[in-house]
Design a protein that fits this description.
InterPro entries: 2Fe-2S_ferredoxin-like_sf, 2Fe-2S_ferredoxin-type, Beta-grasp_dom_sf. Residues 6-112 form the 2Fe-2S ferredoxin-type domain. This is Ferredoxin. Helix content is 19%, strand content 21%. The protein has three helices and five strands. Strands 2-1-5-3-4 form a five-stranded mixed sheet. Strand 1 and strand 2 form a beta hairpin.
Amino acid sequence: MAEDEVSVTVRTGEYETTLRVERGRRLRDALLEAGVDVYGPVSRVANCGGRGLCGTCGVRFEGTDGNRDAAETAAPEPTHWHDRAAERFGYPRLSCQVTVEEPLTVRVPEKVMWGQLWPGRDD
């Protein structure tokens, strides 16, 4: 892997892959370019384009073993108001507001409508 690239492991349901992402790139853009859908059925077409306004491109950070507690220390510091609230209250962080600087493991939760998660599921 080149010095200016970072590994990002992506988990969706039972699927897992590792991407090589240019350091400093927005996570949302890297995921979409790799064919990883961060949106629900409606928000796939109607979203804010990565400006941190619609709240639909949420991901969760995990440790490499899937342990969410381990991710608490590995997740990048939130800089956007929505991500600070997400970290505080435990809901997904906006991938459009995360700059990839260090290796990450993210889980893309399955979404029902807009950016809503399936009821009772915490992917």
